[in-house]
Design brief:
Blueprint lengths: L1 H31 L5 E7 L5 E7 L23 H8 L7 H6 L4 E3 L6 H4 L15 E3 L1 H5 L3 H5 L4 H23 L2 H18 L9
Parallel strand pairs: 3-4
Antiparallel strand pairs: 1-2
């Protein structure tokens, strides 16, 4: 109950503060390409139920499936403005609506596609015993997932090299979760995102 109250208060505050940002981003998405402002993909929630995750649309309309479920490095399906949103994880902010609806928490195992959660082994099924979240250990460790999977056959790379690692980090949250762990993850996530805005220093020979 305390976690739910915490989620509701801070998600509501976040939405109020970010409302002007949401309006501006929505306008820029519509100017950038045809299609809806939001992407609503199906994910697996607590106890195996399904819900639609809400993100800003970063791909050209109708291009989610033709190129596979995993986004490749420099994926041609991503719009110019979508690249900016993804780089700084700004496309994730609408998930605050999922938190308000009770489908997600601010902190919890990142929600996954049903195609993968249906294959969870007995230990991995523990991931589904808690509410999925906007951030967790896997979000921090794999913050540049597109670079991790590369540009050649990203679905295969994700399934062979990334998925088990991601699930292990999701389980780490399930085993270690507490109010203090949630606070630490929120602050670490904020710091990680802010660091992305720092210009990279070029090396001078």
């Amino acid at each position: 109950m305390a976690k739910r109250i915490f989620d509701l208060i801070f998600a509501a505050l976040g939405l109020v503060v970010l409302l002007p940002f949401f309006v501006i981003v929505g306008i820029l998405i519509k100017m950038d390409s045809k299609g809806p402002v939001f992407y609503r993909g199906v994910r697996t929630a607590c106890k195996g139920t399904r819900f639609r995750i809400i993100k800003f649309r970063t791909m050209y309309a109708g291009m989610e499936k033709p190129g596979g479920d995993t986004t490749a490095f420099q994926d041609p399906r991503i719009t110019p403005f979508g690249k900016f949103l993804r780089r700084f994880k700004l496309d994730e902010f609408p998930q605050l609506f999922n938190v308000i609806l009770g489908e997600m928490s601010l902190v919890g195992p990142r929600p996954e596609l049903p195609a993968y959660t249906d294959q969870y082994d007995e230990e991995e099924k523990l991931i589904l015993s808690v509410k999925p979240g906007i951030t967790d250990f896997s979000s921090l460790e794999l913050i540049s997932l597109d670079e991790e999977v590369g540009s050649k056959d990203p679905d295969a790379i994700f399934e062979k090299r990334i998925l088990k690692k991601k699930n292990a980090l999701r389980l780490k949250y399930v085993y270690e979760r507490s109010f203090w762990v949630d606070l630490v993850l929120i602050f670490r996530t904020a710091f990680k995102l802010l660091s992305k805005f720092k210009p990279s220093r070029s090396k001078v020979d």
